[in-house]
Write a structure and sequence with these properties.
Strand content of chain B: under 5%
Largest sheet of chain A: 7 strands, antiparallel
Structural class of chain B: mainly alpha
Helix content of chain B: over 70%
Radius of gyration of chain B: 19 Å
Order of helices and strands of chain B: HHHHHH
Strand content of chain A: 25-35%
Number of helices of chain A: 8
Largest interface: A-B, 30 and 34 residues
Order of helices and strands of chain A: HHEEEHHHEEEEEHEEEEEHEEEHEEEE
Distance between the termini of chain A: 86 Å
Distance between the termini of chain B: 26 Å
Helix content of chain A: 10-25%
Strand order of the largest sheet of chain A: 3-4-5-6-16-15-17
Number of domains of chain B: 1
Number of strands of chain B: 0
Shape of chain B: elongated
Number of helices of chain B: 6
Oligomer: heterodimer
Number of strands of chain A: 20
Shape of chain A: globular
Chain lengths: 361, 167
C-alpha cells in the first residue's frame, strides 16, 4: 500500500509539448503505414481467375510478332512499297473469300477496307508501315496557346487485335510498375503510350485484351469494342454487363471523356479534379473502326512545352477530326514510344507505369 | 484504470481524426485515389467511429462519476477562471459528445450501406467528405476536452495524496 502510494507520488505528468509531439509522430506513422498498404505494397493478382469477353474472334496475342520496320520521314519509299506489297498480298487472299465471309470477318474487327486506304505520310515526323499496322507520327509545336509541343500518332490497324494493351511484367496486380519503353519493346510495339495507371487505384474498370479484371466504374470509362468502335461513358451510364455483352475488348477508367457525342470539343470541364490545370497529357482518339490516334502533350518544361488543359486537349482532338476521345493518365506518366525509342520528352524522364496501350503486327 | 483508457482513447481519436481529415482533403481533390472507398479505408473508418463512440462513453462515465461524487468543482478549482473552464468543459464536452456520437453512428451505417451498394457514389460525395471533416473536428475537440479533464483529475489526485499522507 505504502509502495503504491509512493509510486503514485513520484508519477510525473508529461509536458504538453511532448504529448503533442508524440501525437504528431503517431499520426505520421499511421499515415505512412496506410500509404504503404494502400499504394506501395506490390500485390500480384495473377493467380486469380478473370472472366473473358466473347470477342467473336480468336485472340492471337500470344503468337510471336513479326519483325517491325520503322522509317524516318525522309526515307519512307521502301516502307510504302512494302506496305503496298503486303496490301496486294492481302487483296489476293481476300479475293478468294466469299462476300458473306468478308462481311462476317468485318464484324469481327477486321478493318481491311479502311486499312487499304491508309498510307504513309511523307511529311510525318516518323512513320511505319507494315502488313497490319500503319502509323504516322507527327510532332506538332503549337505556340498559339503558349508553349505546347505534342506528338500525334495517326494509327491504322488491319484488325482490332493489332491494338493491344500490356501490363507491367505481364502481370495484373497492384503497384506493379515497369518502364513504358521496356514494356513496348518487349511487346514489339510499333507505337505505345501509357495507359490509365490502373495499378495505383483500387477501383475502376479494367478490361484488357478481352479479359475483365475489374468491373466497377469510378469515373468516365472508355471502351473499345471488338468491332473497333470506341465509346466513352459517364460513370453513371456505364453498365459492365452491357459492354461485355457487346464485346468489350479494352476499357480504361481515368478520364474524363474529351469530346461530346457529336465529336465537338467540350468547352469546360467541371468537377473536383486536381488535373484540370496545364499539365502533360496522354489521350486516345477514335476516328472510325480501325483508325485511332495516340496523343501525348509534353509539359512542365518552360521554353519547350508547358502542357495543355483538358479544354485544350479536347479542342486538339476535335481539330484532328476525332469523333471520340479520352484522357489517360498524364503528368510525369505521359510517354509515347516509337519503335525502340521514346518519342516525346517526358517530364523529369517519366515514371514507371502499370500498363501501356500499343499497336503491333 | 478508466482514466488511462480515456487518455489512450483520446489520443487514438486525435490520431485517427487527423488521418481522416487528410483523407478527406485528398478525396475532395482526387476521388480516384480511393482513400475513402477501398476496403482498407472503410475498415479504418469503422475503427475510427468505434473509438469515437468509446471516447464518448468513457467521457460521459467519467464526468457522471465526478458529478455523483460531487468532485467536479474540487477537481477544477473554485476560482472564477476555473469555473469558466468547468462550464466550457461541461457544455462543450456535452455538445461534442452528442455530435460525435451522432456522426459516428451515421458513418457506421454509411459504411455498412456503402459496402452493400458500392461505396463510390456515397463516400466520394462532397457532403460525405465535409461530414467526415466535421466528425473529425468534433472528435478532436472532445478528445482535447477529455485529456484536459483527465489532467485536472490527475493533478487533483496528486494534491490529495500528500494531504492523505499527512493525516
Amino acid at each position: 500500500m505504502e509502495k503504491s502510494q509512493k509510486n503514485k507520488k513520484t508519477k510525473k505528468l508529461f509536458p504538453l509539448w511532448l504529448i503533442i509531439l508524440l501525437d504528431a509522430v503517431a499520426i505520421g506513422i499511421t499515415l505512412c503505414t496506410f500509404a504503404y498498404f494502400h499504394h506501395v505494397r506490390v500485390v500480384d493478382y495473377s493467380d486469380r481467375e478473370f472472366s473473358k469477353v466473347d470477342l467473336g474472334w480468336e485472340d492471337s496475342s500470344d503468337e510471336p510478332s513479326d519483325s517491325v520496320r520503322f522509317e524516318e520521314s525522309d526515307s519512307v519509299s521502301e516502307t510504302i512499297e512494302a506496305s503496298e506489297q503486303s496490301t496486294e498480298n492481302a487483296e489476293s487472299l481476300e479475293s478468294e473469300e466469299t462476300e458473306e465471309q468478308s462481311e462476317a470477318s468485318a464484324e469481327k474487327g477486321d478493318f481491311t477496307s479502311v486499312f487499304e486506304n491508309a498510307s504513309v505520310d511523307e511529311d510525318a515526323y516518323k512513320s511505319y508501315a507494315g502488313e497490319n499496322v500503319i502509323v504516322n507520327l507527327y510532332k506538332i509545336e503549337n505556340n498559339v496557346n503558349g508553349d505546347m509541343c505534342y506528338y500525334f500518332a495517326d494509327v491504322y490497324v488491319r484488325h482490332i487485335s493489332n491494338l493491344k494493351t500490356a501490363f507491367a511484367y505481364d502481370t495484373y496486380g497492384q503497384s506493379i510498375n515497369e518502364e513504358t519503353l521496356k514494356m513496348a519493346t518487349k511487346n514489339s510495339a510499333v507505337v505505345a503510350i501509357n495507359g490509365d495507371y490502373y495499378g495505383i487505384h483500387r477501383r475502376g474498370v479494367v478490361i484488357r485484351n478481352g479479359t475483365v479484371y475489374r468491373e466497377t466504374a469510378t469515373d468516365d470509362v472508355c471502351v473499345i469494342f471488338s468491332d473497333g468502335v470506341m465509346k466513352t461513358y459517364l460513370e453513371g451510364e456505364f453498365d459492365i454487363d452491357e459492354v461485355c455483352a457487346n464485346g468489350a475488348y479494352q476499357a480504361w477508367n481515368f478520364g474524363p471523356a474529351l469530346l461530346n457525342e457529336d465529336g465537338s470539343a467540350i468547352e469546360s470541364f467541371t468537377g473536383n479534379r486536381d488535373i484540370s490545370g496545364i499539365n502533360p497529357r496522354t489521350a486516345i482518339g477514335y476516328f472510325e473502326p480501325g483508325h485511332y490516334c495516340f496523343v501525348v502533350v509534353d509539359g512542365r518544361q518552360e521554353g519547350y512545352s508547358r502542357g495543355a488543359t483538358l479544354e485544350q486537349l479536347s479542342e486538339l482532338l476535335a481539330e484532328h477530326g476525332c469523333v471520340s476521345g479520352y484522357n489517360l493518365d498524364g503528368g510525369k506518366t505521359s510517354m509515347m514510344t516509337f519503335g525502340d525509342e521514346v518519342a516525346n520528352r517526358p517530364t523529369q524522364g517519366g515514371r514507371d507505369v502499370s500498363d501501356i496501350i500499343f499497336v503491333a503486327e | 484504470m478508466r482514466l488511462n483508457a480515456l487518455k489512450i482513447s483520446a489520443h487514438v481519436n486525435i490520431v485517427l481524426s487527423v488521418v481522416f481529415i487528410v483523407f478527406a482533403v485528398i478525396t475532395s481533390q482526387n476521388t480516384s485515389m480511393g482513400f475513402l472507398t477501398d476496403k482498407m479505408s472503410l475498415s479504418l473508418l469503422s475503427v475510427f467511429c468505434l473509438f469515437a463512440l468509446i471516447l464518448v462513453a468513457l467521457f460521459a462515465l467519467e464526468t457522471a462519476d465526478l458529478r455523483r461524487k460531487g468532485r467536479l468543482i474540487s477537481v477544477f478549482g473554485a476560482g472564477e477562471k476555473n469555473k469558466k473552464a468547468l462550464s466550457t468543459v461541461l457544455v462543450g464536452g456535452f455538445l461534442a459528445s452528442v455530435l460525435t456520437f451522432a456522426f459516428s453512428v451515421a458513418f457506421i451505417v454509411l459504411v455498412l450501406v456503402s459496402e452493400a451498394i458500392g461505396p463510390d457514389e456515397i463516400m466520394n460525395s462532397l457532403k460525405t467528405v465535409y461530414s467526415l471533416v466535421f466528425l473529425s473536428l468534433t472528435d478532436i475537440f472532445l478528445s482535447v476536452i477529455a485529456l484536459f479533464t483527465v489532467r485536472k483529475i490527475e493533478r487533483f489526485e496528486e494534491q490529495l495524496l500528500p494531504a492523505a499522507e499527512d493525516k
